[in-house]
UniProtKB/TrEMBL annotation:
Name of the featured protein: ABC transporter ATP-binding protein
Recorded GO MF terms: ATP binding
Source organism per UniProt: Paenibacillus profundus
Matches recorded under PROSITE patterns: ABC_TRANSPORTER_1, ABC_TRANSPORTER_2
Similarity-based family: Belongs to the ABC transporter superfamily.
Amino acid sequence: MTCLLRTNQLTKTFQGKEVVSNVNMNIQKGEIYGFLGPNGAGKTTIMKMITNLVKPTAGDIELFGEKLTDTSYHLLGRMGTIIEYPVFYDKLSARENLELHCEYMGYHNKQAIDEALELVKLTNTGSKAVKDFSLGMKQRLGIARAITTKPELLMLDEPINGLDPVGIKEIRDLFKMLSKEYGITILISSHILGEIEQMADTIGVINHGKLIEEVSMEQIREKNTEYIEFTTNDCKKAAFLLEKHLGVSNLRVMDDHIIRVYDPSVPQSSITKTLVMNDVVIESIHKKNSSLEDYFLSLLNGGGIVA
Ligand SMILES: Nc1ncnc2c1ncn2[C@@H]1O[C@H](COP(=O)(O)OP(=O)(O)OP(=O)(O)O)[C@@H](O)[C@H]1O
């Protein structure tokens, strides 16, 4: 696989505070890379450095195999971006905004504007001024603008903000289509883990400015395990009984009342029977699957994957 975007020890300090620390990211050509992290983790700052809007304090960025410098306009022209909320000429229509953008980018292909508007379902907005668009329509127009010039890399900072569930599904399908059919590489940040889970090939997890994990979804799915979770009044006694009577060693006490058993050979009925016969109350018991959310939370809490 070819690496389309790579950062080497990328670091940014604002007023003496390091907000991005030695980040080494690797985005392969053709993949959808999901960038996950809580508010303030540093995602937007990294994206701004990749588009030359913010200058790194240290480290560097390689785009399309070339080092990014202050004058790398030819590299930036091969990217489509939405960073923070897209800004438009408010009094102009969707089409007029895209025409201006194409002119600015030196991209002369009127048909591409029709195609982009069609892809984001904004063909029937006519002469309506963008100031009268809903937030979701503006987000869709931002995506149209980012894809009009047929970029090789699309970089989208929280692009589904403001969209309703139907809109989110449409945009998710659009990204997948752009990736599969047009071979566009996509870097997308989102707080909505389920969205990333359904779209991304690779995820990069960032917390406090550090990239704490870069892993393929395939690897995460392989690590995904079934477990039995139960709520009880006495975790300590329950854990002791399960170990003594059923030989369970792979369990995790989640809090004062919740235990997870990661042992596929132990049936749920044996757990219930053992605990009830020894006067431990079970308030609820379920079979569950560890999801990306569990994985993400365990990383952010400083642990490894639960398994
Ligand atoms: N221009 C700036 N001057 C000073 N501090 C800044 C500046 N831009 C960002 N920061 C700080 O850098 C940190 C990272 O912010 P950033 O916007 O990159 O995070 P984020 O992961 O994109 O979060 P969010 O999802 O909330 O946008 C935050 O603590 C933020 O306050």
